[in-house]
Every structure is written in C-alpha cells, then in structure tokens.
Amino acid sequence: MRGAPDLQLRAHRRRVVRRARGLGEKILRYLDHLDSYVQEYDRLISLNQIYVKRLANVAVISRDKAIAYGLCGPNLRGSGISWDARRDLAYGAYPEFQFDVPVGSGKDGSGWGLLDRYAVRVLEMLESSKIVRQALAKLPEGEIMAKVLRKPKPSRARPWDGWSRHAVPCATT
Fold first, then answer.
1. Relative to the CA of 117, which of 96, 143, 144, 163 has its CA 20 to 30 Å away?
2. What does the alpha-carbon distance between residue 24 and residue 34 come to, in Å, rounded to a whole number?
C-alpha cells in the first residue's frame, strides 16, 4: 500500500494539532510545579549539613584546569568562569531572551568543587524555566506542524554524506 504512510502521517498531524490546543497552558502549569519543586528540593538539600560537608572541597576544579580540560556549560561555570554559549555566541533565539548566567562562587573553602557545580545546576533549571516562559510568550499563533521535505537517504558508499554534525564550541579563554 503505497499511500498508507501518507495517511498515517496526516492522522498523526491531526492528533498532534488536537493535543497542541492548550499546550501552552499545560507547559506553564508544569513550569510552575517545576519551579516550586526545584526550590523546595534545593532548600532541603542545601541546608542539610551532612550533604554540604560531604560536597565541600570535593572534586575541586580550578579555573585554569577547567579551561585546560575543555569543560563547558554548568561544569565550566561551576569553576567560576562566566561563559555561556547562549549569551556569548548568541545563537538561535537566545539573543531575544533575558536570562542570568549562574556562576559558581567558590565559597565552599578551597575553590570550585561539587557544591558549586550543584548550585549552578539548580540555578540553571530555574533559568531554563524562565527562558521557556519567554519563548512561549513570543510563540506566534497558528499551526505547530510544518511541512518538511523528506531528507534523502545517505549513499551506501559513504554513509556520512547527507548528515551533518552540529556542535557548540566551549570557552577557550
């Protein structure tokens, strides 16, 4: 049946569009729960002296070592370096959003250890929630499914043809 995949695709699109009605409200409700849970768990964990003592001064990575190891993202920022590809390279829609870049403080004693990387990741979750809220606010009305041309299959001789690799570079300074 040659036309069956097309019928299946159309039915799938109809189901997606039906589910998409009210999707923004569902996402916002989820983000409200996420924010409250992240703050509650952070309060429970961050104020737990056993947890704090076990993470303090463990797996300390200095700024120089973080760059030498090629760390990026929350691991790099957990070492006290304020570098974020979303802000510093300004790719995609990120220039349109207002967000803070959490950076480790090094206040756990001898440097930037697990406690700082934990704190950066918690703050990252809250900042991500803020970015998603802004993206939803800027989302235009209309259909959410776009017509996409089928991608040709790569040749058997050279399987890597037709595919591309996307990477975001890390800090080098």
1. 96
2. 15
